[in-house]
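re: ur msg from earlier - yeah i can do the flavin-adenine dinucleotide complex, just paste it... oh wait u already did. ok heres what im feeding in:
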Amino acid sequence: MKNTNYSRRKFISDGSALAASALVFSSSEVLAQTPGNVKIAGQSVWPSEASWQQLKEAVDGRLIKPIAPWSSLKAGEMNEDLKNPWYLEEQAGATQSTGMYQAWDSTPSAYAVAVEKVQDIVAAVNFARQNKIRLAVKGTGHDYFGRSCAPDSLLVWTHPYRGVTHHPRFFPQGAPPTTEPVQAVSVRAGNRWLEAYQVATAANCYVQGGGCTSVGACGGFALGGGFGSYSKKFGSGAAGVLELEVVVADGRVLIANAHQNEDLFWALRGGGGGTFGIVSRITLLAHPMPKTDGWISGTISASSDAAYLELVHRYVSFVPAALNNGSWGEGVIFPKGKNHLEVGTAFLDLTVEQAQQVWNEFTAPLKGRPKEFSVDLKFSVVPFKEKWNPKSDGVIMDSRPGAPAGYFWWKGNDVEVGAYWANYQGRGVPLKSMSIEHSKVLAKAIFDASRTSLILFQTNKGLAGEPQEARAREITTSLNPVVFNNVGFFTLGSWVQYKYPKVPGHEPDMLWAKNEADAVNQAMVHIKKATPDGGSYTNEGDFSEKNWQSEFWGIHYARLLSIKRKYDPDNLFRVHHGVGSESQNVDSTAKVTTQKLNSR
Ligand SMILES: Cc1cc2nc3c(=O)[nH]c(=O)nc-3n(C[C@H](O)[C@H](O)[C@H](O)COP(=O)(O)OP(=O)(O)OC[C@H]3O[C@@H](n4cnc5c(N)ncnc54)[C@H](O)[C@@H]3O)c2cc1C
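and the outut:
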C-alpha cells in the first residue's frame, strides 16, 4: 500500500484483477403489493409530453433528460473527467460504477428532477405514483447493485440539494422538554461525507460516516447500515442518525425520530436506501473530535505457501484480542494468488509507539524468522483535525477549473472509480470463527479463497468489541443483529476500470468477466463455510444472493416488511434486493436481471 493517510484504502494493488431464515415470501404475495402496469418509455401508456411539461412547471423547470457522459466516446478515446468521482456525481446520467456482469448496466433514466427543494421531491413522487411509472433515487450513484439507476424511469436526482448545518444543541422535533440536547450535524440529500466532515471539523467535532469522501451522507450509506473506518468506536452510520425528514410514497413530508413516526425511524436506520421513502435531510449525532488519526501501511510476505498459511493463521489469531476494540479500524488485503498481506490498518488516539507495541505481538515472531517472513510496515499519525484536509500523497485533488477547494478522493478509492464489476460480495466474520478452536479452519479458508480472489478484511465492519455507549444506540436500529457478533467483514471482488457496456470500443470483455465472476464465487464458498451465521448487509452484499432477506436483515426482516407495506403499500420505492422487492419482474431492469441470475 502506497498511501499513508487515507481511510478506505481497498484493493489497491490488484486493481486490474479484482468484486429469512424462517421467512418465506411467495412471489404472488409480494406481486400483489406492486403495480403490475409499470410503463415503458415510448409505449402508448407512457405519460404524454403535456404531462411531462406539467411536471416541469411544478419543479420550476428542473426536469431534465439525463445522458450517460460516456455514451459519445469514440473507440480509442477517453475523457479524463470520467476518472473523477466528483465529476461523475455531477452527471444525472452517470453512476460511479458502470455495471456488473450478469447483473446491471448503468443506464440513464428517461427524465430526472434535479432537486433544489423538498417540494421538488414531493412533485416527482406524486407524478410517479399517479402515472404508475418507475421511480429511481440517486444522490451520488455509489451503489454496488446499481440501485440508483433504472431505464424508463423518472429519477429523483438529489445531488443539487445540498447544505450542511452544525447544531451545538440539537433537540429532536417532538421530544419531551426534559430531553437533553446533543451536538449534531444536519445534511441535505445531495451532500457527500467530505462536506459533512469539513463542517464537523470546523466545529471541532466528528460524525461517523464512510471513508470514501464522495459517498452520500444522506443516502444509502446510513440507510443501509453504513460502516466507516471508526465504526467500532462510534458505531454504524445508522446508529448515528438522530432524525430524518422523509418524503413518503403518498407525497407527505414526515419527520422520523425517536419521538414521532418511530417505526419509520427504525426502518430507515438500516433497512436500506430507496425503499421506505426519499430522505431529504438527515441529522447525525456529533462526537467530540478524536485527537489523532493513525495508519499502518506496508506488506508482510511469506516465502512459501506453507509459511503463508501460517502467516494468515497468526493474523487471524492476533485480531480478536488486539484489534477488536474501538481503537482500530480497516484491516488487510489478502491479494489474489500471492503470499503476502497488504496492511492498511487505521488507529485512533494512539501514538505510533503504542500502536507498534500492539502489533509487535504479531510481528516480532515473524521478524525472528527472516528466511520465511519479511515485515515491512510503516506507522504514521496525524492530528485528527487534518484528516479531511490531508497534505499527503495518499490523495487525489479535484483539480478541475472551478472545482470546490479541498475536494479530494483517497488514492485507495481511485481504483474503484468507473469500475465494471465481474463480481463483488461481502461476508461478516463471527468472533467465533476467529476463536482458538476455529481459527485454523478460517485461515485455511482464507488461504484457499485467496488463490482465486482478492479478499479485503476490515475490522470496522463487525461490531463485536464496540463500546457499550455505541451498542446502546446500535440496538435501536434495524441492522442485522448478527453484526454484533462479528469481528469484521470480508469483501471479495474483481473489476476492471473505464469499461462501458454497450459503448463500441469500450465494452468490458465478457469472457474475462465470466471467469472472474466464477473465481470470486468459488472463493466465497470457502469463506462462507468458515463463517457460519456471518451474514452480510445491503450496502456490500452479493447481487445474486438468494437468501438476501435473512443474509442482510436476519430476524428484522418481517418487521421491516410490515413497515414497508404501511408506508409504501404499492411498492413505489423498489430496488434490487430491497425490503418488499422480492418480485424481480417489477421493472424493466429487473426483468433482465431475473433471466441473467437464473443462468448464473
Ligand atoms: C467506492 C465505494 C466505497 C464504499 N465504501 C463503503 C463503506 O466503507 N462502508 C459502507 O457501509 N458502504 C460502502 N459503500 C457502499 C455504499 O455505502 C452504498 O452503496 C450506499 O448505498 C451509497 O449511498 P449513496 O446515497 O452515496 O449512493 P446512491 O447510489 O446515490 O444511492 C444508493 C441507494 O440509496 C438510495 N438513495 C440515495 N439517496 C437517497 C435518499 N436521499 N433517500 C432514500 N434513498 C436514497 C438509492 O436509491 C439507492 O438505492 C461503498 C461503495 C462504493 C462504490
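cool cool. Residues 1-37, 584-600 have pLDDT under 50 and may be disordered. ping me if u need the other ligands too
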